[in-house]
Design a protein that fits this description.
Number of strands: 5
Shape: globular
Structural class: alpha/beta
Helix content: 40-55%
Radius of gyration: 16 Å
Largest sheet: 5 strands, parallel
Strand order of the largest sheet: 1-2-3-4-5
Length: 155
Amino acid sequence: DPLALIDTFTMIGPSKIIFHIETLDNDMVMHFFDTLPEITRQTIRFELAFGVESDVSVILPYMESIDSIQCMGISRVGFQGQAFDPRVIDQIKKLRELYPEKTIAVDGGVNEETIASLARAGVTEFVVGSAIFGNDDPRGTIERLKTRCNAAFTA
């Protein structure tokens, strides 16, 4: 229950807090956002993440309260190295169409083979774990990811 510890989290001073919609009590989250002090809202970005099994409509009630959206590119959250789930591409396209101004991130399954299609779908932030840390050339991997992403944005 992340909301039970939210005061501690906000006092630590993070730049961003990400809530996973599938783990939340909707009424409690809405109450949290409704009572959020303005200073907290100005200093912390709030992001809402959801899995590939969920329909994009699950986040619609929160759109006025959040700064960005995070789509999970894998089916089992919390386990590194999983295969990319292509269903996330359709989620991203729908969200980009509905919210062209919002930052859309993807976490899970981001690698040299998937980053270009994610960028073309509308992702503007990429969370990359095992693709970087699971090989012998992390710096080279980061450079190749940047190159493929930039090429997709300019294509």
